[in-house]
Design a protein that fits this description.
By secondary structure, the protein is α+β, with helices and mostly antiparallel strands. It has two domains: 94 residues; 117 residues, Cytidine Deaminase, domain 2 (3-Layer(aba) Sandwich). 45% of the residues lie in helices and 15% in strands. The termini are far apart. Strands 2-1-3-4-5 form a five-stranded mixed β-sheet, sandwiched between helices.
């Protein structure tokens, strides 16, 4: 049975195989040979399941044009996705499931192992979790004495360019969790991960508050669509 909003092609009405069926099989075969598809074709593979009776290539291209990339499409807020003609609740639900699956996959790569020995996995997780968020978020990875992850918590959400952060609250929560080390993370919705002067001051305030209590701040990572920045790598801490 067709889903609401599905529009059969001309061939459907004549009892013939729609033209896009052959395209779907060819695209699946190309994917099976290796994930080398451009973003809009990879998005088509997802939309095949959401919209089984329609040519979804124009819709996939419209989504990429609107949001910029595959990652930005699945991370886009539902209300903005709904503004694209042809996108309904079923498609939005499938895209959000895919987004959550990506976060879980990235999180699984950093669980149960010392984070400082799997730094690329930490970066991948942070980017998956918040690089494409439309608002700034400040999160903390709380670590034990073996640098294993105790908790991953969003401590604050703000506007497009500011999130309030209170060093006392950071230290208080660290003590509650018996954390001995932290990795600070926040995103820049602008896409540019370059630290601001406010970011630098805030980081130094947290380091100063945590140090006397034996809590080490390993790094502060800023993520954005255009990459990431490490305070330690930039020698800012």
């Amino acid at each position: 049975m067709a889903r609401p909003g599905d529009r059969p092609g001309l061939a459907d009405s004549a009892g013939e195989t729609p033209h896009y069926h052959g395209h779907r099989e060819r695209l699946r075969a190309r994917f099976a040979q290796g994930d080398t598809l451009p973003d809009y074709e990879f998005l088509e593979l997802v939309l095949f399941r959401s919209i089984p009776r329609r040519d979804v290539k124009p819709l996939a291209k419209a989504l990429i044009q609107r949001f910029g990339s595959f990652a930005e499409v699945i991370s886009a807020p539902p209300d903005l996705l709904a503004e694209v003609d042809g996108i309904g609740p079923a498609v939005i639900g499938d895209l959000k499931i895919l987004e959550a699956a990506g976060r879980r996959l990235a999180r699984g790569a950093v669980m149960e192992r010392p984070l400082l020995t799997s730094w690329s996995a930490v970066i991948d997780y942070c980017r998956a979790a918040m690089a494409f968020s439309p608002r700034e978020e400040f999160r903390i990875l709380f670590l034990d004495k073996r640098n294993r992850l105790i908790a991953d918590e969003v401590q604050g959400q703000g506007t497009v360019d500011h999130t309030p952060v209170y060093p006392r609250e950071v230290v208080r929560r660290s003590l509650e969790l018996s954390a001995t080390a932290l990795i600070l993370v926040h995103n820049h919705p602008s896409g540019d991960p370059t630290p601001s002067q406010a970011d630098i001051r805030m980081t130094r305030d947290i380091v100063a508050a945590a140090g006397p209590l034996g809590i080490v701040v390993h790094d502060h990572i800023i993520v954005g669509r255009d990459g990431h920045a490490s305070f330690k790598g930039l020698k800012l801490m």
